[in-house]
Every structure is written in C-alpha cells, then in structure tokens.
Design goal:
about 210 residues; alpha+beta; Cathepsin B, Chain A; eight-stranded antiparallel beta sheet; three-stranded mixed beta sheet; 6 helices
Length: about 210
C-alpha cells in the first residue's frame, strides 16, 4: 500500500492531505483536486512521509499552480444539488493533467499522466501492484457514489464531484485517501456509475 503519511505535532498520522487545512473557504470547498495532485506528485518523488506543517506549506504553494476553475466574477453562496456553490467548479480533469506535470517539474520530475475510464478494474489493480496509487475523479453531480469511513463503516457519505486517491483494494471495495482518512468506496457503485468516473496514474519518465 503506497500512500502519503502526514504526521501532526502530536504524533497523529493522517492518510494523505485534507482540503479543510486550507484557510480559504473556497479552497476548503473545492480543494480536493489540489490535494490529489500534491499527494501523488510527492509520492512520485519518493516522499511518503512528511510533517503536517511542511505539508500545509506545500499545499499553499500547490494551490497557486493547480487552481480550481473559478467564475470570472464574484457570486453569492448558494445551494446546488444539496451542496454549497462558492463560485468554483473545482479542479477539472484537464487542469489536473496539465498542472500535475507543472507541479512535478518544480521538483525536477518529468512525469506522464496516464488517464483511463474504460477497463478501469484491471488497470487500477495493475497500477496498485506496481506500487502506483490511482487518482479518481467522481464526476457524478448527484452524490450517488457511497463512501464509508473505514474507522466507522456506518458513517456513509455520498459523493458527487470529488477527487480521491485509490491506495489499495479488496474484493469488494476500493480503499481511498480523502480528507486525511481512509475511506471505502464499493466497487459495485463504481461499476454501475463507470461513465461518471475517471482515473489517472502519475508515472515518472524512465521508471
């Protein structure tokens, strides 16, 4: 299992980054794509353990590169599909593809972003066996993919537009990093809504 371990000052270890660590409310609402890009670039660079303080500094810098798509003018907060719209459409798939490359270049890494949608089951398994986590964008707007908090499986959320990183799998679930924790997403849900899910794997050139 290859994932980014982030250690707090009190010794708590998080599973990847958490968009709620941003100070800006728009980034808290739509920064999951920035977290996914940063976590996976760090892993591609061979960094799998970092302090929370250092990570937050890197997250701030990453947010200047992997920018969510914003409205060109200020809008009032409003509820759309049960969520709060803050004037941001979040990080699109195209933005992540381009900006993850730029983020990696800042670490002298030449990466390729391999994307796929069809045949995802075998491709995710193959990537995980190679030690490569898989970025997954849930593009469904109506929050119809279930996510179970691994610590408390009865705690179920339903996700619409959200980025996660698949770090492992078992027979029935993908184990993903989201909000600094491990969650389970049923493969059954992903298979049923496969048209609404996209995947990406970062690969360092020559490796």
């Amino acid at each position: 299992m290859n994932y980014l371990k982030i250690t707090d000052y009190d010794g708590r270890v998080y599973c990847g980054g958490n968009q709620s660590w941003f100070d800006d409310v728009v980034m808290i609402n739509s920064g999951c794509g920035i977290v996914a890009a940063l976590d996976n670039v760090l892993l591609a660079a061979g960094i799998d353990n970092i302090s929370k303080a250092d990570y937050k500094d890197l997250l701030t810098e990453a947010s200047k590169i992997v920018r969510p798509r914003m409205f060109p003018f200020k809008v009032k907060q409003r509820k759309i599909f049960g969520g709060t719209f803050m004037g941001s459409f979040g990080v699109t798939f195209g933005i992540l593809r381009r900006k993850a490359v730029k983020l990696a270049a800042g670490r002298d890494l030449d990466i390729k972003v391999r994307v796929f949608r069809t045949g995802h089951a075998s491709k995710v398994t193959a990537a995980l066996k190679e030690g490569r986590p898989v970025i997954m964008l849930i593009t469904a707007p109506l929050k119809n993919l279930r996510m179970y908090w691994e610590i408390e499986p009865k705690n179920v959320s339903r996700q619409g537009f959200h980025w996660v990183t698949i770090i492992d799998e078992n027979e029935t679930n993908y184990i993903v990093s989201s909000w600094g924790e491990r969650y389970l997403i049923p493969k059954e849900d992903v298979n049923k809504k496969s048209v609404l899910v996209r995947f990406a794997v970062l690969k360092v050139s020559g490796r």
